[in-house]
Input
Amino acid sequence: MGNKNVFTEEDFALISKEFDALKDNLVRCNTPECIELITKAFNLANKAHLNMRRRSGEPYIIHPIEVACIVNSELGLGAKSIAAALLHDVVEDTDYTLADIKKHFGEKIASIIDGLTKISGNYDNRDTSQQAENFRKMLLTLSDDIRVILIKTADRLHNMRTLDSLPERKKMKVAGETIYLYAPLAHRLGLFAIKTELEDLSLKYRHPKIFDEITRKMKHGERKNQTMINRFSLPIIARLEAEGLDFDITGRPKSIYSIWKKMQTKNVPFEEIYDILAVRIVFKPAQGISEKSTCWNIYSIITDIYMPKPDRLRDWVSRPKANGYEALHLTVMGPHGRWVEIQIRSTRMDEYAERGYAAHWKYKGDKAQESELDKWIKKIREMLENPNNDPIEFLDEFKMNLFSSEIMVFTPKGNIITLPKGATALDFAYEIHTEIGNSAIGAKINYKLQTLNSTLHSGDQVEIITSDKSKPVKEWLDYVTVAKAKSAIKQALRNETRALIDKGKKLLEAKLKSLKVTHNSEVYKKLLPGYECVSKEDLYSKIGNGTITLDNIKKILKKNPSSRIIKYWELKMSGTNKSGKSSSNSKAEAIDKQAPYLIRESIDDSKPDYEIAKCCKPIPGDEVIGYHDPEGKIIIHKPKCPVAVRLMSREGNRLIAVKWTIHKMVSFLAQIHLEGIDRMGVVNDITNIISGELSVNMRNITINVHEGIFEGTIDVYIHHTKDLNNLIMKLVNIEGVDRVKRVEDFS
Output
């Protein structure tokens, strides 16, 4: 028997037919020079992939040809991109090297192939963090040549079109990866036709029954819908022709994925989705009349015929989307009480909408204004330049930046800033400049003073209030939604922690030197428990920020290590069961129940092994007890908390002694209740004491006045009960304040 991989006459005929189809339909590059380059690339790729087959059994070279067809006809890219698409798997899968590509095709094509080769593992790799790292490498090419991502997107589209030949497990993996990253990326790059197909194909393989059911129902109503669109369009066509406009009008149903998404969002069946029909009007601009004017003229004509739905007008002509998309969308009431969406675009806008960044190149001159898409790419580059980014964390932050909904807010001078829906005033501050974000203390939103975590809405005018004394705190990470802001806050916290550690280390070394004590591990065996620290870095940072003074260091160093010392420990994942999860027994063995567990503060990105109970919300300084749950987490309760009392009676063996270490980096939320006699300026005096004199952050303040008596609550972030008691003492001394107490909520 011969080798089944060896190509037959039929295989060679198929390859020749597919390549001829590519050459016969070149969009932008049908000059002799371009055809020569594309043919040269095909010949090398065809030779390199000789007798190689895909899982489906077809010759492997068919895949690069199909990717090249997508790059040509659906993206409209040039000869170099088509050549790179034909060659994209050569270095990865054959004996040819990057040097060979460079020798035959030059630096630019070799550079694109290099970018594509770096990310080739993205398709089949099983390791999640490696997969995330591969995707990060792909995005690094944004800094070099965005054609790498465009070709990779075309590669993914063809892989999705031919996914049937893969085993079920890989189908689910590739489809999941596609809907999570590639479809949103295609959307962000403005590749709407590709984005829609990727979404539909992903749904087809992730939820085949749902996909088939929606497809069947749409097929069933196809003729009826087409009749309705024709009837709907006729009066519009007549009016537009009377105006002398040069236009095309087409009708189409919404994509299967978008219908399914709407069914999920509204929790309704297919039959109750009424706006599944859309009409698109694409016009050629007349000489001397702006595209914007023509869009609004067509809008006016349509609304003379059909009643519009006011809340469904979308003006992306005056201000394009961040991915460059321009169009005017409106929804009107059509025949038989059906809502119909109408999209109005010029031919240029339409090419942008279908081909995104590829069209962006075509229309963008050297002196063109920086587009929203350029600004977005710049943001991604800034994220990529952060060397501390963990691959999975980066992936999540990048995904967060692929938002589909944007808001537009104004600076005090009237400049527009585009942010994702749900962004806060602090996001806005970091969008202006990192230093403004780092020094922010509040914001004026539409001239009213608001907190940094206030959510912004389209049209808001925002002014950031700053202070030289302000600096980022860990709570700010909960205030922001944009990756740039999160990254900047984390970097500032790391820098502060690093600076404190360096400062503390120098102070300790100088002190030990003055005492003529040798700097060694034996010294730390005394210092760490003596100062209730769990690591050298913990000790250094607390010396650096002044929470530990070294006045009593002699006394601590003189102690015998074997005397009564507070031992410390950390949970260790010392054993795993068959499922790969740590067993509770192995966790229990790691705990020394004879010594208190030290509740240390987490000053970096690592998550602590403990959790503050939400029922009683203890803070440093409170008397506390620990419950070691079956998952290995230590839950910190107040002993008088009803939940803790119940645990004492039922699971006493899981209770352990715990002890606070000094907390100065992480704040805890506490609530105080105030009562008193109302007078002019009393609230101002209260807030001045809290945020001005004591520099305590407030999260919420509620004051009610009734017949001259006021009472209210204030939520504050503090580090220790000493700080809270100090605050209460200061507030009691304010004129008119009669009573101040801490609210202990055991809900």
The chain has five domains: 9-214, 217-363, 493-558, 584-660, 668-742. The longest helix spans residues 483-514.
